[in-house]
Each structure stands twice: as C-alpha cells, then as structure tokens.
Amino acid sequence: MDHRSDALPLISERIDAVTGGLRMRRLRQADWTRRLVRETTLGVDDLIWPIFVREGDGDGEPVPSMPGVFRLSVAGCVEAARQARDLGIPVIALFPYTDPGKRDETGSEALNEGNLVCRASRAIKSAVPEVGILCDVALDPYTSHGHDGVMQGDRILNDESVDMLCRQAVVQAQSGCDIIGPSDMMDGRVACIRGALDSAGLRDTLIMAYSAKYASAFYGPFRDAVGSGVMLRGDKRTYQMDYGNSEEALREAAQDIAEGADMIMVKPGMPYLDIVGRLSRELGVPTFAYQTSGEYSMIMAAAQNGWLDGEKAMLESLGGFKRAGAAGILSYFSPRVAAHLKAR
Ligand code: PBG
What we know:
Layout: H1 8-19, H2 31-37, E1 47-53, E2 61-62, E3 70-72, H3 74-87, E4 91-96, H4 116-127, E5 132-137, E6 150-152, E7 155-157, H5 158-174, E8 179-182, H6 189-199, E9 206-213, H7 220-226, H8 247-259, E10 263-267, H9 273-283, E11 287-290, H10 293-304, H11 310-324, E12 328-330, H12 334-343
C-alpha cells in the first residue's frame, strides 16, 4: 500500500509554513553531519577512576553490589594505575576497605601513615608517578559508627571532626596524594585543610571539594565496598545536603571556593545534573560530577538483565555530564569508557 495520501502536498506546505523552511533534521541526516555539529564530547581526559583498596595479596575481591568492580590489593592498585596510564586516564581515586578491627569511635586509623590508602598512594607514586591520585578526606572508612566525623551521643561534632580531617589530609598528601577530596560536609573544613597543608609545606596539593554532596540512597553499594554500610548508625542528613535544595548548593560551593577549593564537585551525578549545570555556569570553577556507585549499579543491573544496552547507556550517561557542564566525571566505568574511546 502506498503510504502517501492526497493530502501530502498540503502537509508539506503547512510544515514549511510553520518551520519557515527550516528542517532541523538536516543536521542529523548522517553520521558525519552529527559529528560535525556535536556540541560536547566525552574524552579520556574527563575521567577519574575510583578504586577500592584492601589488605593482603592476590586477586581482586568482587564487590557483590557492584558487578565488575573489585577490591584490590596494594599491588593490584599499582596495576590499576598502570592501566590508567596506558589508557590515558588522568586521575585515580583511592578508597579503603578497612578491617572492622581497625575501626574505632574517632576513626584514628585515618591518621596512620601506614594505613591502606597511604601505602597504596606511596606504591602508586613510586611506580606510576604520571597518574594523579585523589584521596577522600572523611572518617567513614575508619569509624566504628560509619559516620564521616567524630560522634558524641548521636551528634556529629563539627570542629572536632575538622581537626581530625586536617591531620588526615596532611598524612595523605605526605604519602603522595595529589588531590585532597573533602567529602565530609563539615563546615569550614576547606579553609582549615588548606591551612594545614600549607603549614606542612604542601602548597601544591590540590583540593577538590565535595561541595554539593547530598544525603543520598545512591551511595549504598559504595558503603558495601568500603564496609561502612553495616556499621552506619542512623543516616547522614545532619551534614549531607537535602535533595530538595539548589540555592544551598550554590552557597556551599561559593563558600568552598572562598575557603580555597581549586575544584568543586557535585554528588550524586545523574539526578543532580541541574546542580552540575548551575554551579559550573554560575561559579566558573572546574566542576566535577560523581557518578556514584548506585548509578553505576543501576545501569549494570539493567544491562545484565538484558533490559538495556549497557555500553550505550554508559556512554550516554557520561555524555550527559559533559553536556551539563562538568569538567570531568568520577565514574566506575572509567576504564571501560577509556578502552572504548581508544578503540574508536
Ligand atoms: C564517604 C564517601 C561516600 C562516597 C564517596 N565518599 C559515601 C558516603 O558519603 O556515605 C560515595 C561514593 C559512591 O557512592 O560511589 N564520605
């Protein structure tokens, strides 16, 4: 059957009348036109790869709620750093799984220069110095209650926590960490950490502030990976932000910049692209997005069920961050994306 009716000439005339002859689809007609006019592109230089470190030797230990993600030995982290270098990924981010026996009320293991993150940083810096190292500053991998700060009763103490965080930052930077990432959301921590680093002669150490970090359900698999999920008493809503707020994100980020942050971050990522867009446009400071563990696992789970094309969903999700204005993205997909970009 002919799909055209007698009305077709009239339809064409009407379409030209409303579009003024502009046919937007002209630019989408072929791969080459689409590539020619693409406004933003994802590149390997946009990627930060978060990895998990554990005690002991041997193979990576799978994280059950994060398919394809493993807790690595220190030697495994060095191997991952080599992989990052070979793929062109600029930075890796280190997160420790701390044995429950080493956790305590104040997170004192955070200050031990022999802790996992510090050992991994030193090993990576000596073997693969060309890869940048980002380390979280927060106490949750080290506390027996799973909170990012020091607790008294059921309160998280701000200033006492900042005192610990400053010392944690110095120990990490002295171990080879290039970028300190305060992810604790305590007030005034960026200024105090900057001061502590400078006093220790660590003026070149960068600060990427988790400025707009929301209290979120999307951190669940990460907490499994670092072992703080089972520990966590209550929730983090007295320090992480309320997801209803956007103005507050602007104030938090402006404050962190005033305190000396070199870069800012929004976390989680996908449900907060409006915040990424707003902060990057309004503040003009390199703004990063964290595609969290929960976002990663959602895509992986759906892909494993055959409900969506995992490879395409991965690329589209990361492309969305670039379009929103992100300077870069922390993503567990980083090595896979980098390999994909390299193969193209
Ligand atoms: C620790 C920290 C968290 C994440 C990064 N740093 C979890 C939390 O705040 O509870 C989440 C990362 C992810 O979900 O991938 N302060």
